[in-house]
Design a protein that fits this description.
Radius of gyration: 13 Å
Order of helices and strands: EEEEEEEEEE
Helix content: under 10%
Number of strands: 10
Shape: globular
Structural class: mainly beta
Length: about 110
C-alpha cells in the first residue's frame, strides 16, 4: 500500500521560503506521477504543482522536483505570500488511473 508522508511546513514571514518534502513508500516510486495540492480553511483543495503544470498564483515562485533515488518529491516555495497559507498535500497517481494516494498534509502559515 502506498504511503505518503509530508514534512517541512511551518510558520514563515511574507517573502520567506520553505521546502516541503513528501516521502513515498509501498510501491515503485518512478511509476507514479507526483503533485502537490493545498487547501485553505473553507476552500476546496487545489492543484499547486505537477510535473507539467503550476497554479497561476505560484508560477515563478514554486518549483516541484523529485529524487527517484530517495523516493521523495519536493516543493520549493519562494517569495511566500499570506495567501499561500494552507495545508499542503502530496498526491501519487499512476498515469491513467482515476484516483491516487494522499498524505496527511503539512501546514504552511505565512504571516508576519
Amino acid at each position: 500500500q502506498v504511503q505518503l508522508v509530508e514534512s517541512g511546513g511551518g510558520l514563515v514571514q511574507p517573502g520567506g521560503s520553505l521546502r516541503l518534502s513528501c516521502a513515498f513508500s509501498g510501491s515503485i516510486f518512478r511509476l507514479y506521477a507526483m503533485s502537490w495540492y493545498r487547501q485553505a480553511p473553507g476552500t476546496q483543495r487545489e492543484l499547486v504543482a505537477s510535473r507539467t503544470d503550476y497554479a497561476e498564483s505560484v508560477k515563478g515562485r514554486f518549483t516541484i522536483s523529485r529524487d527517484n533515488a530517495k523516493n521523495t518529491v519536493y516543493l520549493q516555495m519562494n517569495s511566500l505570500k499570506p495567501e499561500d497559507t494552507g495545508r499542503y498535500y502530496c498526491n501519487a497517481l499512476i498515469p491513467g488511473a482515476t484516483s491516487g494516494y494522499w498524505g496527511q498534509g503539512t501546514q504552511v502559515t505565512v504571516s508576519s
